[in-house]
Amino acid sequence: MVTGKGGTGKTTVAAALALALATGGKRTLLVEVENRQGIAQLFDVPPLPYAERRIAVPPRGGEVRALAVDAEEAFLEYLELFYRLGRAGRMLKRIGAVDFVTTIAPGLRDVLLTGKVKEAVTRVEQGHRVYHAVVLDAPPTGRVGRFLNVTAEVAGLAKVGPIKHQSEGVAAVLRSPTTAVHVVTLLEEMPVQETADAVAELRELQIPVGSIIVNQTCESVLSGARVTQTQLRRDLEALGLPTDRRTVAGLAAEARDHQARIRVQRRLRSELEQLGPPVLELPFLADGIDLSGLYVLMDALLEQGVHTA
Amino acid sequence: MDTKRALDLDTLLADRDIRIIVCCGSGGVGKTTTAAALALRAAERHGRRTVVLTIDPARRLAQSLGLAALDNTPRRVDEIDETAGGELFAMMLDMKRTFDEVVLAHSDPDRAKEIFANPFYQAMSSTFSGTQEYMAMEKLGQLRARNEWDLIVVDTPPSRSALDFLDAPKRLARFLDGKMLRLLLAPARSGGGRSVLRLVGASMSMVGRIMRKVLGGQLLNEVSTFVSALDSMFGGFRERSERTYRILQAPETAFLVVASPEPDAIREASYFAGRLAEEQMPLAGLIVNRVHTVAAHGLSVERSLAAAETLTTTDPDSVTAAVLRVHADLVRTAEREQRITDRFRRTHPDVPVAQVPALPEDVHDLEGLRRCLSALL
Ligand SMILES: Nc1ncnc2c1ncn2[C@@H]1O[C@H](COP(=O)(O)OP(=O)(O)OP(=O)(O)O)[C@@H](O)[C@H]1O
Ligand SMILES: Nc1ncnc2c1ncn2[C@@H]1O[C@H](COP(=O)(O)OP(=O)(O)O)[C@@H](O)[C@H]1O
Ligand SMILES: [Mg+2]
Ligand SMILES: [Mg+2]
Questions:
Q1: Given this model, what pLDDT does residue B328 score?
Q2: A270 touches chain B (CB under 8 A)
Q3: Dihedrals φ, ψ of A136, to 5°?
Q4: Which of these, A105, A114, A190, A169, lies nearest to A145 by C-alpha position?
Q5: What is the mean predicted confidence (pLDDT) over B276-297?
Q6: How confident is the model at residue A118 (pLDDT cuts 50, 70, 90)?
Q7: How many domains does chain B divide into?
Q8: Ligand 2 atom 17: the closest Cα is on which residue?
């Protein structure tokens, strides 16, 4: 599971993780659940259907498949399985009844989604697990606790029957060592705060936290150094560069701001380290994220031992 | 920058005919910060009696505005400069309490008590997606109706899409009107009507039975008593939200779309600008927040990097070389951000744009809020 504050890079990191876990000839499934087609956008392909399709291959063999789980479709699938609704099911969707039901019972929606993940995780064909790993691009930190706390979520629903049974099965998988929730963050106040909150919440729920993944980090070449305008001017002069006040004072101001940012990042980084789970880092890629960018992030994850995290 | 299309925030804040400013945008771009900064400036510089309605502010920012408690009432912020004759009030939206207030306003106390005790109401008034947007609108309507402030600055909920602010209330209203529930719970009507409808009716009752099995009778009963309890006041609900919608279309309102200089946020801002035009809601401009600024203009990326290279050959630890590399990075970032912003300018030539610099540290006090807008680009 990959969570994190909105916009920190959950989808990107989930994709890099699915690639990393597939290297060496394995097969993984990258799943999204929020109807946003984030995976399709990331890989620059047409919208994904509700079906498992190959989306990428890591270098040196392996395969990543992707799936966009649609809660309404999953609900219809479920109704079909247990109640044989036939055509009425389709009609239900058309008139908005499925949307209505998953709205009044958001827990039902979430159990259907996590249920689909559990099914993929445990699926066996010819005596072998179909997927070495399933990576879920999960809801953001603010909602992930409720999303994963399936048994509590459906407590208000029917006391017997398949949903109840399903939620217990899902809860068992989520609380087992099969699961790891990775929390993506940036070195900024609010994402770090949310990371701390999420780690605490997940612990409370006894859902295993994998690692904290600090995304978009920049290496600093100027951390502790003392910058003086005298020194700057002398060096600029020697190089034949402009030494007017604006340039020299400007450079000094830029350096000061940069160092202030680095100080904040250091502090936040050490706050993250105190949380307990291992802290991994992914570089900021200035050219944006395409497949080659994902490979870079994948390599970074592998180097930091993500498969064992 | 093309000054014709520059957004002059001070002119906007000084304009006495503008009574409401709404800050929208996708999550994390700085809506709350911008809303608070604008309100502070309106009070301090333009002498306006201003209230800012914040939603989920960062903890430290809330504290510095004196919003330790989420009590849903505007609190006066004392530490501001009031020499221009303005005042600042700040509040943080409590959506559950706002919902309760609406229920109370439209029903007798017994009915209200019944609704408050309903477990489904309790769940929905605190977690339902869309409730926050709806209640933000409601609160805005209430503040406007009190007519106590010259200017109301509204932050919008931290949804992933700026459009949610416009769409969620309608979605919630559609849900509350109970049509779907009646449809699902209705017994099959026999006879009458065309056969297609009879067929629909029959399958619906089967569906109703199955829903009962899946969801459990209890939940459906709760929802159904809740919706019928609400039925009598539904007209009131709709009327209120329609009134707020009209306020949003009035010339006294100005929308500001906030975006970070990133492709996703700018794209979202673009959609939103289009949508506001469709809804005939007045867009005052785009605020690009957290823009990186270059201070040493005379040095290009290439020259800086070449110079850094030369310096490190003689001294690998040269501080000046490091400073030049930081500068080169900054220039590149600033250029990328300008390219991204220019995309918006090209597609929306009529929308004025303002840029707020990225401060090196987070904004969590009044001084930070002042600094945000004092260095407007
Ligand atoms: N390491 C990185 N370097 C550069 N850009 C990055 C990196 N990681 C993510 N991004 C960019 O940041 C933006 C947000 O990333 P992404 O969509 O993965 O976040 P998210 O957490 O899934 O967002 P949401 O909460 O909206 O689902 C994207 O434009 C992405 O390309
Ligand atoms: N111009 C800025 N410079 C530096 N930090 C900023 C700036 N604008 C916002 N921030 C920081 O960014 C974070 C998100 O801002 P916030 O206003 O809460 O966003 P939103 O309300 O859009 O989700 C906060 O920690 C805030 O302090
Ligand atoms: Mg995403
Ligand atoms: Mg906010």
A1: 97
A2: no
A3: -105, 125
A4: A114
A5: 94
A6: very high
A7: 1
A8: B30
Of chain A residues 183-242, which have a CB less than 8 A from chain B? 188-190, 193, 218, 221-222, 225-227, 231-232, 235-236, 239, 241-242
DSSP-assigned beta bridge partners for residue B287: B258, B354
d(CA B118, CA B120): 5
Q: Which amino acid is at A165?
A: H
Residues A50-75, mean pLDDT to the nearest whole number? 92
ipTM: 0.88
Are B23 and B258 within 8 A, CB to CB?
A: yes
By residue count, chain B amounts to 377
The pLDDT of B85-89, averaged and rounded, is: 96
Ion ligand 4, residue ranges at CB < 5 A: B 32, 158
pLDDT given for residue B225 in this prediction: 83
Give B323 to chain A, closest Cα distance, Å.
Answer: 6
Distance CA B254, CA B23 (A): 9
Crossing angle of helices B95-106 and B217-249, rounded to 10°: 90
The domain of B43 spans 3-374
pLDDT, tens only, B242-256: 888 899 999 999 999
The two structure tokens encoding residue A210: 């994998």
Cα(A64) to ligand 4 centroid in Å equals: 36
Q: Where are the domains of chain A?
A: 2-218+272-308
Nearest CA in chain B to A248: B296
Residue for token digits 């080169």?
A: B328
Helices B131-146 and B95-106: angle between axes, nearest 10 degrees: 60
**CATH classification at residue B208:** 3.40.50.300
Interacting residues of B342 by C-beta distance below 8 A, sequence separation 6+:
none
**For helices B119-127 and B109-117, what crossing angle results, to 10°?**
80
Q: What is the mean pLDDT of chain B?
A: 87
According to CATH, the superfamily of the domain at A2-218+272-308 is P-loop containing nucleotide triphosphate hydrolases (3.40.50.300)
Distance between CA atoms of A282 and A15, rounded to whole angstroms? Answer: 13
What are phi and psi for residue B182, nearest 5 degrees? -60, -40
* pLDDT at residue number B189: 44
Give per-residue pLDDT as tens, A1-40: 999 999 999 999 999 999 999 999 999 999 999 888 999 9
pLDDT at B377: 60
Q: Tell me the pLDDT of chain A averaged across its residues.
A: 91
